[in-house]
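Hey L., structure's done. Input below.
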Amino acid sequence: MSLQANIHPDAKIGAGTVVEPFATVQGDVEIGENCWIGPGACVMDGARIGNNVQIFPGAIISIVSQDLKYNGEKTTTYIGDNTVIREYATVHKGTIDKMTTTVGSNCLLMAYVHIAHDCRVGDHVIIANSSQIAGHCIIEDWVIIEGVVAVQQYVTIGEQAFVAGGSLVRKNVPPYAKAAREPLSYCGVNSIGLRRRGFTDAQIANIEDVYRVIYIMNSNISQALKIADLEIPNSSEKDTILKFIRNSDKGIMRGIS
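Output:
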């Protein structure tokens, strides 16, 4: 540990972890093994950091929420193993709603990303520079969000989805889909990402068939869900899509216009 770092004596820091000069680690903090806390980074009370995590200079983890309803309750922030948090990114601690903010394992939060209170970010998520995720959002596993994206509070982005840079996300984005344009719209299936992660052509074709019914052939979502349920061959991917849409109280992004 650097003698120039500000480390509270009550902080729990695992073997092999390096805290660089001018970093701050407060007392109610647990950091796993073989982490790197860069110069000027701040790890605040309530942080629970996994193993092999890298937190770059200027990043702030588990700072008090900007939610005006926050009343000082003891809450936490969890960062999973092997996650990288780049320069000046911010991850705020939870509030009484969920009591925690969670970023999963093997994630990359690029420079100036903001994750607000009570968000749940899954595993293998990439969020590019200057994207802003408002409170209470859910970002499921393997999602990619390009740069300068703004996600409205309580939005869910489904697993394996892709959101194009500069997008304003006001509605839920279903799994496996590509989202772009203004207002945010369905732009096809994230087929490149899916192939990179081992999805077969048959699986991708099945996903495309489901979305063809939902977004292209029918304007009535309730009717489209019934048709997809009856006419598209069964698969785990179809089940995932239909369940996501049925549970989307906030509504889903619009179709191709």
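The chain has two domains: 6-139, 194-246. The chain has a mean pLDDT of 96.

-- N.
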